[in-house]
């Protein structure tokens, strides 16, 4: 810190001299004497964790006994009443009827593609068929099946279900061994969590976990079957895995690959694997009555007005959209929707319905309207669970809050209100599968996760808002976005199908039919619409050769420009060297399953012993903005936020708000604290959970001592935290051009940029720093920066890009300092400090 201060003083002096036209340079000697060791780091943080040792003979003995016990247990289960009933259920599933066909096709072919409607038994039955057959026919020889799931929640819930169907208990652990040992043949492994042991023959894991396993075990030595589930989603990880597996198959002729999909795109995958065998499981669903918006309005007489579509939350949303742009940004699909609406013909509908339709706001999900329909179902409709498809976790929690206040829907003796999204806890997850008591209506608010990967058995009514959060990426502007977008026709059909699983059902689409007609047939694969930085890191850590060449072998290859941008970025942040090889830092980043910038920030936070606030910041950057700004209380909300912001930093404002909440929680006043300070309770809780998760990840890779419980050994030295933030967010940096009473912002690539009006810096008329580092920029008509932190020259020069290596990018970025750095003596000074800093960081990795 003292070094930074001295460098800043030096720069100020230099600027002063430059304007005064003095030709001498200030004293450089301090650069040689500054010792980075003096920053003082707790050495104990860097000791590697010790693995517990096991007594081998004892282990073998217990295992032998255990396997005998397990065989008896299976037999007993199959003969029991429950076991018989389970087998009956399983054999009623459409997949069961294809069992022999499936097994013999797998026997004859290396690659098999299986498609069938959601709920027909692909995920739960197929792996079991293989497991049962292999253990029968191999007489004890080892089969080893890995089934990948796109999300951790489905990996966990499916493995639990399969263990249950086999009469086994997942995670029945034997305390004498390691706590993760389990006796079931079925196990799971997701990030930071797992249940698997020597007996595990069928492992459900996230696709990411299998990719990571490939790093250590390139040929997947002991694996006999790989099942890639939900390939129709075309997630980036799945597309990536398919390239790797396609290369691996000729080298592992006995390895079987099975791809499973809920939609009928089988031919695409079959031709990718040179005409692989296809099996289609015939499906069956009950009739689902479909109501589009106009039908609901017509029957119910509900009148949509601009006002009743906009509740508190809706207002906030719209307001945000207006300020941030998605509404102004006319994506192709938005204009298609608008055209569709303009040309739609509603003449067979009543005047009131037509009037209502003209008030319908495609950008707004009417919470009041949803509440109205739910209330109608609860009061007037037959029994059956309700599944509501919302956009994302933020509007799910906002809707839940609203519904809980409703006299009928909030009455827990009548309604069981649950949520289903990717980040929910396991305990919460189990509840959604359970049947409620008689007379209680189950309502599940879900993201598109419930579209295909999670099956809730008793659903009879579906509400579909027509949207999902989709990550997208604009390669030309190198700008990522995560925006609510209209879903595809296939998704809408999937959502509708969820209502007809047990009996005839009803589906309410909360948009007009003409809008549905304008939807795209399929969603664009993720690899074509997201930034590729993490993917490029993975390609390198798996040593898969030159990145562009590797990606050209994908099912659908991403744009060349998108690949180049990603590689360039990784060079700038120091994860790649100039030859596209992983640096030591890059190597660590590949082990952290998060955006590289967050990983980088965390690593430096640990090294500089200020991990606590950095955990909050990185977690905060991963969840919904916790600062709420309801339109009608905008001033009060802004004033509340202003209390936290005396550092010209949104990131530090968040740290202060979070710490305040943590303190309030001790007195059980967390909720009240959030209310008075306009903070979202859910976001605070999510940050709390993520902080723990990030900390365990850092312990896993050995950056933080595995026994460390206290990472609070820091004082609020904002100077240091600014440096760490900059280290992570670089090259997200813009220069502040000061004018007399205001300032404007500039980046090299975009020219003039603007601050998002929620930023604490947007309310300042002067910022006493020359630079802002930012997390994200969003291109609307002009470019807007979201959360930002003001930083000094020294911070950018020393914690920004890699000066000595990629001179070109660096000099360009530094704009005004170009001439300054060209002076050999000055450049040398900075490089010397920079080198020391780099060496110091390297020595801690
Ligand atoms: O993968 P797919 O969509 O084809 O179906 P699945 O997930 O294997 O589910 C097959 C059936 O098992 C579903 O129709 C549900 O009836 C049942 N199931 C369940 O009762 N509980 C679970 N946690 C998962 C599935
Ligand atoms: Mg499935």
Automatic annotation (TrEMBL):
Please tell me whether the keyword Hydrolase is annotated for this protein: yes
Q: Which UniProt keywords apply?
A: ATP-binding, Helicase, Hydrolase, Nucleotide-binding, RNA-binding
Membrane-spanning parts: none
State the family named in the UniProt similarity comment for this chain.
Answer: Belongs to the DExH box helicase family.
ATP-binding among the record's keywords?
yes
Where's the Helicase C-terminal domain?
Answer: 369-543
Q: Which domain of life is it from?
A: Eukaryota
Q: Might you give the EC number(s) for this enzyme? A: 3.6.4.13
How far does the signal peptide extend, from start to end residue? Answer: none
Q: Which reaction does it catalyse?
A: ATP + H2O = ADP + phosphate + H(+)
- What name has this protein been given in UniProt? RNA helicase
Q: Which ranges carry the Helicase ATP-binding domain?
A: 103-282
Per UniProt, the enzyme's principal EC class comes to hydrolase
């Amino acid at each position: 810190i003292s070094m930074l201060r001295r460098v800043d003083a030096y720069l100020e002096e230099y600027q002063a001299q430059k304007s005064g036209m003095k030709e001498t340079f200030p004293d450089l000697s301090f650069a040689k004497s500054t010792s980075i060791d003096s920053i003082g780091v707790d050495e104990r943080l860097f000791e590697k964790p010790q693995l517990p040792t096991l007594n081998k003979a004892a282990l073998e003995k217990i295992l032998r006994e255990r396997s005998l016990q397990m065989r008896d247990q299976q037999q007993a289960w199959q003969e029991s009443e429950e076991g018989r009933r389970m087998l009956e259920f399983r054999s009623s599933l459409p997949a069961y009827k294809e069992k022999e066909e499936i097994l013999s096709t797998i026997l004859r072919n290396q690659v098999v593609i299986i498609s069938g409607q959601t709920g027909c038994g692909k995920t739960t039955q197929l792996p079991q068929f293989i497991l049962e057959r292999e253990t029968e026919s191999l007489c004890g020889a080892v089969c080893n099946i890995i089934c990948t799931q796109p999300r951790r929640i489905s990996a966990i819930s499916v493995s639990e279900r399969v263990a249950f169907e086999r009469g086994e208990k997942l995670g029945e652990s034997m305390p004498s061994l390691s706590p993760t040992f389990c006796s079931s043949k079925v196990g799971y492994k997701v990030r930071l969590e797992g249940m698997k042991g020597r007996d595990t023959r069928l492992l459900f894991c996230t696709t990411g976990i299998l990719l990571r396993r490939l790093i250590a075990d390139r040929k997947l030595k002991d694996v006999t079957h790989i099942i890639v589930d939900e390939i129709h989603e075309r997630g980036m990880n799945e597309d990536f895995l398919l390239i790797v597996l396609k290369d691996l198959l000729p080298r592992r002729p006995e390895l079987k690959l099975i791809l499973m999909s809920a939609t009928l795109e089988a031919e695409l995958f079959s031709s990718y694997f040179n005409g692989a065998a296809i099996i289609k499981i015939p499906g069956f669903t009950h009739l689902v009555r479909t109501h589009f918006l106009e039908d609901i309005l017509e029957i119910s007489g509900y009148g949509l007005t601009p006002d009743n579509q906009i509740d508190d939350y809706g207002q906030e949303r719209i307001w945000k959209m207006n300020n941030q742009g998605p509404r102004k940004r006319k994506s192709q699909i938005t204009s298609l929707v608008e055209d569709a609406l303009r040309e739609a013909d509603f003449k067979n509908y009543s005047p009131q319905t037509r009037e209502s339709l003209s008030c319908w706001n495609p950008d707004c999900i009417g919470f009041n309207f949803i509440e109205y329909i739910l209330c109608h179902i609860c009061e007037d409709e037959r029994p059956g669970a309700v599944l509501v498809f919302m956009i994302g976790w933020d509007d799910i929690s906002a809707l839940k809050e609203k519904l809980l206040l409703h006299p009928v829907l909030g009455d827990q003796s009548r309604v069981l209100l649950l949520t289903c999204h990717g980040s929910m806890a396991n305990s919460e997850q189990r509840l959604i599968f359970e049947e409620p008591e008689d007379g209680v209506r189950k309502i599940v608010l879900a993201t598109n996760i419930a579209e295909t990967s999670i099956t809730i058995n008793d659903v009879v009514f579906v509400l579909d808002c027509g949207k999902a959060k989709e990550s997208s990426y604009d390669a030309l502007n190198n700008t990522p976005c995560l925006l609510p977008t209209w879903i595809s026709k296939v998704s809408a059909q999937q959502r509708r199908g969820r209502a007809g699983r047990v009996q005839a059902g009803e589906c309410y689409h909360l948009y007009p039919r003409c809008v549905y007609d304008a939807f795209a047939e399929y969603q664009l694969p993720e690899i074509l619409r997201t930034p590729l930085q993490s993917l490029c890191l993975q390609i390198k850590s798996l040593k898969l050769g030159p990145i562009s060449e590797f990606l050209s072998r994908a099912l659908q290859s991403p744009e060349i420009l998108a690949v180049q941008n990603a590689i360039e970025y990784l060079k700038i942040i120091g994860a790649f060297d100039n030859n596209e090889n992983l640096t030591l830092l890059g190597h660590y980043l590949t082990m952290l399953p998060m955006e590289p910038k967050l990983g980088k920030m965390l690593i430096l936070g640990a090294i500089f012993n200020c991990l606590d606030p950095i955990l909050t910041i990185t977690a905060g950057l991963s969840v919904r903005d916790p600062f709420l700004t309801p339109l009608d209380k905008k001033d009060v909300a802004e004033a509340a936020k202003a209390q936290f912001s005396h550092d010209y930093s949104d990131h530090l404002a968040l740290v202060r708000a979070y710490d305040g909440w943590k303190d309030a929680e001790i007195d059980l006043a967390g909720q009240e604290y959030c209310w008075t300070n306009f903070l979202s309770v859910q976001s605070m809780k999510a940050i709390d959970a993520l902080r723990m998760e990030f900390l365990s990840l850092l312990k896993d890779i050995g950056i933080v001592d595995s026994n460390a419980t206290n990472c609070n050994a820091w004082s609020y030295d904002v100077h240091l935290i600014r440096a760490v933030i900059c280290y992570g967010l670089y090259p997200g940096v813009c220069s502040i051009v000061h004018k007399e009473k205001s300032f404007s912002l500039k980046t090299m690539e975009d020219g003039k940029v603007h601050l998002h009006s929620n930023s604490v810096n947007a309310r300042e008329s002067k910022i006493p720093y020359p630079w802002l580092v930012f997390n994200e920029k969003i291109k609307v008509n002009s470019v807007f920066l979201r959360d930002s932190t003001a930083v000094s020259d020294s911070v950018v020069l020393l914690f920004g890009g890699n000066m000595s290596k990629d001179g070109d990018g660096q000099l360009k970025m530094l704009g005004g300092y170009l001439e300054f750095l060209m002076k050999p003596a000055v450049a040398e000074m900075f490089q010397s400090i920079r080198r020391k800093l780099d060496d110091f960081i390297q020595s801690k990795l």
